[in-house]
Amino acid sequence: MPTSSTKESRREFLQSSLPGATAKLTVGATLAAIAPQVLALEATPSQKLRVALVGTGSRGTYMWGESLEQEFPDRVDTVGLCDINPLRVEYAQSLYKDPPAVFTDFETMIRATKPDVVIVTSPDATHAQYAIAAMQLGCDVICEKPLATTAKDCQAIHDAEKQTGKKVIVTFNARYSPRTIRIKELIAAGAIGDIYSVDCSEMLDLDHGASYFRRWHAYKANSGTLLVQKGSHIFDQVNWWLDAEPVEITALGDLRKYGRNGPFRSTHCRGCNHKSECELYWDITKDKRAMQLYVQCEQADGYLRDACLYREDIDIYDTMAVQCRYDNGVMFNYSLNVTSPIEGQIIAFNGSRGRIELRSYHRQPWNPEMDTELRLITNDPYAMQLLTPEQGEGGHGGADPAIKRSVLYPDTPDPLGQRADSRAGIMSSILGIAAVRSIETGETMRVADMIDLS
């Protein structure tokens, strides 16, 4: 947990920029000072970082791959790429102007290329093994969320970091979006007083939601379920917004639409006899990037990117509800539905002096298609302010480029505490892991019984 002095300094900073609890906040100044994770990197900001990447799927190849060198040519030197699929890693290599060496064995890559930092973008359940191996081989780690998918792996990452002295950053890009920053500023400045409860309803539409059930995410052994994979974003945001950690979790979950519930099934969409009658048929041949990265590489490992949504062995949930109590007494209610006609979130914070409401719809069946509103509603004065920030430029509303800068330039000030270290990653993961265990056992789970971070 952050120390009390850290909390006080952040609040003092924020209150100095707020003439009153309901004053209008400007996001631009905060974005200009977006804070990175401090890593124990030997390279100074004027030196190039030797970077190796493991996992050349879509996120690795297009977010953390060659675009890093294009955007930060004076800072990044990618020295190695690794993937168990030799065709896919060779395709990722082909995108570089100065192609790095490619490997199918992780340890061989590290010993051959001697990177300063390893970026982990492999399937979720493998994050821990690569992060731990990287630290043991002398590298710092930048890991995509979720940091881990089991309590055992969370503990192992924590122990490895202590033993090796190396550092882990988890790339929670959602901390860097303008609306997320605005909420953090309001809460930290006391705009609604003490927080009593948080409610979040998250919805994925039939485009986005269905995609998880086509991919490797559809199996708990790979993703930990969507409570660990997708839920990791909002769980981290709430942990960060509240500056608190989860204590006990109760959850419900079910599979209502996909998997065994399907009206028919096949192996994958291409060549399926039901394509004309399936509402969710996906023609992957019209997606050039997916064809290059997956279809043209599937002969090496048999992975079908357009797998059938109705495979009977799918074992994750599509309908979920979670209740969590934090160490500061705040209650958090969360629901995730991945079969919705709407893509977005409704989040509300209830406090002693008022309420903050965020309604953010990324896709909806009416105009405007994208619609976000952030409201501050207070008891005294009895009033409402609309404080919706402008979207940033770049992926995820400007969050992706912001977190890249954060990772690569670790000396930038951190007034909002956006640093997402291993503890933040573990606390996000463990909330989802505990929720899954609660669904399976019908019991309330206590975080203290699952992991020891002392």
UniProtKB/TrEMBL annotation:
- Enzyme superclass (EC): oxidoreductase
Instruction: Give start and end of each Gfo/Idh/MocA-like oxidoreductase C-terminal domain.
Output: 184-444
Show the InterPro entries listed in the entry.
Gfo/Idh/MocA-like_OxRdtase_C (IPR004104), Gfo/Idh/MocA-like_OxRdtase_N (IPR000683), Gfo/Idh/MocA_oxidrdct_glycsds (IPR050463), NAD(P)-bd_dom_sf (IPR036291), TAT_signal (IPR006311)
Domain Gfo/Idh/MocA-like oxidoreductase N-terminal positions: 49-172
- The entry's keywords: Oxidoreductase
Q: What is this protein called?
A: Oxidoreductase YteT
Q: Which GO terms describe its molecular function?
A: nucleotide binding; oxidoreductase activity
Q: What is its EC number?
A: 1.-.-.-
Kindly indicate where the leader peptide sits in this chain.
none
